[in-house]
Design goal:
alpha+beta, Nuclear Transport Factor 2, Chain: A, six-stranded mixed sheet
């Protein structure tokens, strides 16, 4: 039952919240369904929930939810998610009045406590970073002014990331330039590495398998708080890597990383590398 409820919860985030398929409400929401959020004094009940979904997707046409974690027990599924979008549509309706679109993007964190009985949603209790949403779309000032960090400074951070952390294995540099809430995302990994300790774990594992690994940034561009780097790496496979015994082979990899920075710290890295070619070189794929 828990796995079936998890599957239905994932459809809730994908089909209803990310794709705006309102038929999902008719099919999977019980008549007594109740949606509550601490920022709204009154819940949405039954088919009323369509009004909220329609309003959100009208305000944020590119709204997309990504499930970060999901737990299930009995009739309850708890989902930890990230919502991203751009306020480029209609005004966002709030209790304090309508907020006109300014074309600003946002990314917020949230959690949903869902109850599913006999294949129907009967309850959704939501907590989300509403303050962060309103600040990011320009409806509220940020909590405190932050120093402006230049693109050159952000590129210098990326240089230290590749040279000192990855190529030289200096774990103390992680404490200097990586944020507390850091996330490293790699498509081939089921879960991202989180926080400074997660990054240290990643570096230890990488450099254990490839102790002589060296990274070279071939191309790089920076805009505002983001940097994109196209890199190559060369190394020797000297210890076990993802279950593959050491081969002693010379390995070359190529990829692109996108970095997000806040207040002079790296908060997120998205990695896309030639994983297929890497596995071929290691002999895992014929």
């Amino acid at each position: 039952m828990s796995e079936a409820n998890k599957a239905l919860a994932r459809r809730y985030y994908r089909e209803l919240m990310s794709e705006g398929n309102l038929a999902f409400v008719d099919e999977f929401m019980a008549p007594e369904f109740e949606f509550t959020n601490p920022t709204h004094p009154e819940p949405y009940r039954g088919s009323e929930f369509k009004n909220l979904v329609s309003m959100l997707r009208s305000a944020f046409p590119d709204l997309h939810f990504t499930v970060e974690h999901m737990l299930a027990q009995g009739d309850t599924v708890v989902g930890h998610w990230t919502a991203r979008g751009t306020h480029m549509g209609t005004p966002l309706e709030t209790l304090k009045g309508d907020i006109p679109a300014k074309g600003k993007p946002f990314a917020i964190d949230g959690m949903s406590w869902l109850r599913i009985v006999d294949g129907k949603f009967v309850e959704a209790r939501i907590n989300e970073d509403t303050l962060g949403l309103l600040q990011q779309i320009g409806a509220l000032p940020t909590a405190s002014p932050t120093e402006s960090v230049s693109t050159e400074e952000n590129e210098a951070l990326v240089g230290r990331y590749f040279n000192e952390i990855l190529s030289e294995g200096k774990l103390n540099v992680i404490d200097e330039i990586i944020a507390d809430n850091f996330v490293l995302r790699i498509p081939t990994l089921h879960e991202p590495f989180r926080g400074r300790e997660g990054m240290k774990q990643f570096v230890r594992g990488l450099r254990s398998a490839f102790p002589d690994i060296k990274f070279t940034v071939e191309r790089q561009i920076a805009e505002k708080d983001k940097v994109a780097s196209r890199f190559t790496s060369v190394s020797t496979h000297q210890r076990e890597f993802q279950g593959i015994p050491p081969t002693g082979k010379q390995i070359k990899d190529q990829g692109v990383d996108i970095f997000c920075m806040v207040d002079g710290k790296i908060v997120e890295v998205w990695v896309n590398e030639n994983a297929f070619g890497l596995m071929q070189q290691l002999g895992a794929i014929p």
